[in-house]
């Protein structure tokens, strides 16, 4: 069974009337804003659940209006302009971040060909032969908003956050580009609608003499590329554990320290729109786009009509949950750890994987997905083992006596590093007085 009849091609774009094009643009923009409002509420609720607390639950049903109330509060707060700030750049920096994050949604396919008031049109604003490069360009330009915002604030902490963002970008951008190269090599196109169509091809795979449906998602066929791309995506959106440009515990709020009111809200909006946008890009490149997952594909009409939008939004929400899950689970990496991880781990592994793919492409019958499955899945599992395998033995924790006595001769005693205060002389005397009675009662003095 195949669904190619529903897949749009490049020839299907550029034929819509002006009102339909305008409606698509408004829908993509509204999707970004609405996803931001729900994303903030979703993150607070999920992190609250992980931290065993309720999260927002007072403003509106289930706290759904809390994010709207926060936005109204930001709009009416005082807009403070630092005296040393560059006024023009200081104003346009958050606008650059928001525009770049929203623009990337223009080439994301939300669904197949549908009929809107009698016009057959793809559920996508536009598509070009190099649509994925448009996404990369938007993500690369978004860092200018962070850098310029930190520089134009005229303060030390924002400047350090902006400089961190530049070094962070060159650490993950190369690995992200190589991951997309693997998708280009497999799909044979840079068009987002074409990549989704390639992942929707229904093929059969013979295993031990039995034919089974072959997985078409590149997250399975190109498992190492998917893992590296998603790690780079977390770094690009400045989300934990790679939120070094903000780093509240080190840089107060990083590049946003001197921003307030609506300008601060724009930076916050750009972060969540970028998170939703990159989740949509990941779904498009690796998770089959709007195609339904198995076993929903058993239903004949799963990939036709308006149903594919539901599958697309469900995949995006699942990836947003992973973003939130990482924030509520992992601690922030140090600056040097992230740089080392990007240049010495992600980049070499990705180069080797691209070399393996190039070798497979030279083999006859390249379109047979059994070769990719036989190589991609073991390579992905090996990559996961490499990333999470412990590299050093845990250092044994020093005892309390070693912490107190580990000092140069003639110096004063130092308190223990873990703040374990030794018992006072009065406590020792009380314990010693109770010791005979404890022995007679058959209890331990440490339990008293």
Automatic annotation (TrEMBL):
The chain crosses the membrane at residues 18-42, 88-110, 130-153, 174-196, 216-235, 264-286, 306-326, 338-360, 372-389. The keyword Ligase does not apply. Residues 397-448 are annotated as: Disordered. Its main location: membrane. It catalyses: a quinone + NADH + 5 H(+)(in) = a quinol + NAD(+) + 4 H(+)(out). PROSITE patterns: COMPLEX1_ND1_1 (PS00667), COMPLEX1_ND1_2 (PS00668). InterPro entries: NADH_UbQ_OxRdtase_su1/FPO, NADH_UbQ_OxRdtase_su1_CS. GO terms for molecular function: oxidoreductase activity. The keyword Cell wall biogenesis/degradation does not apply. NDH-1 is composed of 14 different subunits. Subunits NuoA, H, J, K, L, M, N constitute the membrane sector of the complex. HAMAP family: NDH1_NuoH (MF_01350). NDH-1 shuttles electrons from NADH, via FMN and iron-sulfur (Fe-S) centers, to quinones in the respiratory chain. The immediate electron acceptor for the enzyme in this species is believed to be ubiquinone. Couples the redox reaction to proton translocation (for every two electrons transferred, four hydrogen ions are translocated across the cytoplasmic membrane), and thus conserves the redox energy in a proton gradient. This subunit may bind ubiquinone. Belongs to the complex I subunit 1 family. This is NADH-quinone oxidoreductase subunit H. It comes from Micromonospora thermarum. The gene is nuoH.
